[in-house]
Specification:
Elements: H1 12-35, H2 42-54, H3 60-67, H4 71-83, E1 87-92, E2 95-103, H5 105-127, H6 132-143
Antiparallel strand pairs: 1-2
Length: about 150
């Protein structure tokens, strides 16, 4: 019996998916290398950015939805960020069964310190490799997939 080699004639859509996956993995690795210097993971960083950009306190389920991760993952991210002094969890004064998450002054400081590194890393690995037109086109194409 002849062994079937999946990659002899790969379907283009599978090849595109695998390329996206490898590219994402590579970019996440580069970001994690830089964020690690600040005791951050990409998940922790994204949670801080979501809180900052919302401009308000948020419930954990909103963070979960915004990050597209499980509530358990958000809980772990919050535990780590709370330990670092970047976020605070308090009972919602209007609903004592609900928790509100807020950025602390340390969280704001962390975002201010790390944002330039985050921006530089993305610029180096995306912006410097694609023209502005290519970036716009890629964004349009990727949005078609979701």
């Amino acid at each position: 019996m002849e062994k079937w080699n999946l990659f002899d004639q790969p379907v283009l859509s599978i090849d595109v998916f695998l390329t996206l996956y490898k590219t994402n993995h590579h970019l996440v690795q580069k970001l994690e290398e830089q964020l690690g210097k600040y005791n951050l993971t990409l998940g922790r960083w994204c949670l801080l950015v979501i809180l900052k950009s919302s401009g308000r306190d948020m419930v954990p389920s909103e963070l979960s939805d915004g990050l597209a991760v499980t509530r358990a993952n958000v809980s772990n991210l919050l535990n780590a960020l709370e330990k670092e002094g970047c976020v605070r969890r308090d009972f919602d004064p209007d609903n004592r069964r609900s928790i509100l998450v807020s950025l602390t002054p340390e969280g704001h400081k962390t975002i201010s310190n790390v944002w330039p590194i985050y921006e530089q890393t993305i610029s180096k690995h995306v912006g410097n490799k694609l023209t502005l037109e290519e970036q716009k086109q890629l964004k349009i194409l990727l949005k078609k997939l979701v």
